[in-house]
TrEMBL record:
<dbReference type="InterPro" id="IPR051690">
    <property type="entry name" value="PseI-like"/>
</dbReference>
<dbReference type="GO" id="GO:0047444">
    <property type="term" value="F:N-acylneuraminate-9-phosphate synthase activity"/>
</dbReference>
<dbReference type="InterPro" id="IPR013785">
    <property type="entry name" value="Aldolase_TIM"/>
</dbReference>
<protein>
    <submittedName>
        <fullName>Sialic acid synthase</fullName>
    </submittedName>
</protein>
Length: 109
């Protein structure tokens, strides 16, 4: 086996080991996994904990975000998840400068 192939093989083995360890950790090595979220037990043997993802769908509006939280609660969600992105890290300069006026645009760009 060439040195480059050996290095690639070792890297692949580490990746497989990581996936296996992560899987074992997720399943708790055969133990029931339970954690507390806001004082509530969540995990094996407990009711499902529903997370409604709002992400960035509030389009920067605090009022829209508040309405979405209320609606998520009405529909049975236990909590909501928001998301923040750094657009300069996600997109190239050209992509950021390109006009976007689609139906879901947050405003003129």
């Amino acid at each position: 086996m060439l040195a480059t192939q050996r290095g690639e093989h070792q890297h692949q083995n580490r990746r497989i080991s990581f996936v296996l360890l992560r899987t074992l950790w997720c399943f708790g090595f055969g133990r029931a996994l339970v954690m507390k979220i806001s004082g509530r037990d969540v995990g094996d043997g407990y009711p499902v904990f529903v997370v409604a993802e709002i992400g960035q769908n509030h389009q920067g509006s605090l009022e829209v975000a508040k309405r979405m939280i209320v609606k998520a609660k009405e529909l049975g969600a236990d909590c909501v998840k928001f998301q923040k992105s750094c657009l300069t890290a996600k997109f190239t300069r050209n992509a950021l400068l390109k006009p976007y006026s689609g139906a879901n645009s947050w405003g003129s760009t």
